Amino acid sequence: MKNPLSLDLEYILNSTQGLWDEIKGQRIFITGGTGFIGCWLLESFAFANEKLNLGASTVVLTRNQGAFRKKAPHLAGNPAISFHEGDVRYFSFPEDEFSYVIHAATDAGARLNEENPLLMFDTIVQGTRRVLDFARASGARKLLLTSSGAVYGKQPPHLTNVPEDYAGGPDPSDGRSAYGEGKRVAELLCNQYGRKYGIEAKIARCFAFVGPYLSLDIHYAIGNFIRNGLAGKPVHVTGDGTSYRSYLYAADLAVWLWTILIRGKPGTAYNVGSEEAVAIADTAKIVTKAFSSELPVIIDKKADDQIIPERYLPSTKKARDELGLRQEIDLEDAIARTIRWHRQQLMKERHQRVN
């Protein structure tokens, strides 16, 4: 059966020409390999490994191998991908050497950040320390940390797109800052290990994304909009819909992350995301237009003209100038591809239930 992501994977491969030569015959260790970002890293790795005869292999840290086999059986059954069960905070180290480590684990859920911020903070910090100790023990030369735009704290209204040298940070008196503060400490640990032990740690400060494998039932507005659209329900906007976000498509995200891992400067953080500002209400309208039938958009609150809309938007100038990275897939196309993939998944699930 043809992989429903084949066009995206061809695009990723064409956009990363020359990167994969360095990975030939190497071993990669990935945490968070079963999440949204991790699945895209595994999809693109498996595709490049087969198409280019790389002879590389990947070990994925997971807490539940069985759940991932159910979620993505084609990846779980790939002979170049194996699994190592354990908690990121205290997993046992896999044997033998690894050339690359990608630390993409951490539950970014708003619910955990609200209900148990200490657990979230400890998981980020202790997990990163454990992964760095493993990278050191395994002889890894390069490490990629997927951090977050949350490290900047609340974006000032005068700043249209936040750059990497912005010196702001989360409010430590706000209990919801556990995620952003944890990521700040994780970045600090990466840089300290780099200085002391020579690990080439690169940091991807991730913003907002859309694409296949995106969970539709958590706090991501665009995922909630797509979920409602698939169910034929009105698209519901909590708040007044004036806040600005931007969305990078998952295939572009994969290109950026592999490029940062291989070509990024050690000890350097790169913003990863789209610079195209879109109000939440407008995002909802774009989603409804992507469905064949028009769906109503319900906005909870009326906008107050006296309040400056909140922004969460990166400047990606550093990634453009240093690594030649660009957003190539626009938001309308990204949403259409995401909807198409989720529809295919729903059809597959119905077929499995019938049979």
Question: Your description of this structure?
Answer:
The strands form 4 sheets. The protein has a 7-stranded parallel beta sheet, sandwiched between helices. The chain has a domain at 6-210 and 247-273 and 315-330: Rossmann fold (3-Layer(aba) Sandwich). It has helices at residues 6-15, 36-51, 65-71, 73-76, 110-115, 117-138, 178-197, 221-230, 250-263, 280-290, 317-323, 331-354, and strands spanning 27-31, 57-62, 81-85, 100-103, 142-148, 200-206, 209-210, 235-237, 244-245, 248-249, 269-272, 278-279, 297-299. Helix 2 links the parallel strand 1 (27-31) and strand 2. Helix 1 (6-15) crosses helix 2, helix 2 (36-51) packs across helix 9 and helix 8 runs parallel beside helix 10 (280-290). The protein is 43% helix and 15% strand. By secondary structure, it is an alpha/beta fold.
Helix and strand run: HEHEHHEEHHEHEEHEEEHEEHEHH
- Terminal CA distance reads 18 Å
DSSP E strands, number: 13
In CATH, the architecture of the domain at 6-210 and 247-273 and 315-330 is 3-Layer(aba) Sandwich
The whole-number mean of residue pLDDT values reads 93
CATH topology of the domain at 6-210 and 247-273 and 315-330: Rossmann fold
Strand order of the largest sheet: 3-2-1-4-5-6-11
Rg = 20 Å
Structural class: alpha/beta
Number of separate helices: 12
What's the CATH class label of the domain at 6-210 and 247-273 and 315-330? Alpha Beta
Percentage beta strand: 5-15%
Major sheet summary line = 7 strands, parallel
Low-confidence stretches: none
* General shape: globular
**CATH homologous superfamily heading of the domain at 6-210 and 247-273 and 315-330:** NAD(P)-binding Rossmann-like Domain
Assign a percent range to the helix content. 40-55%
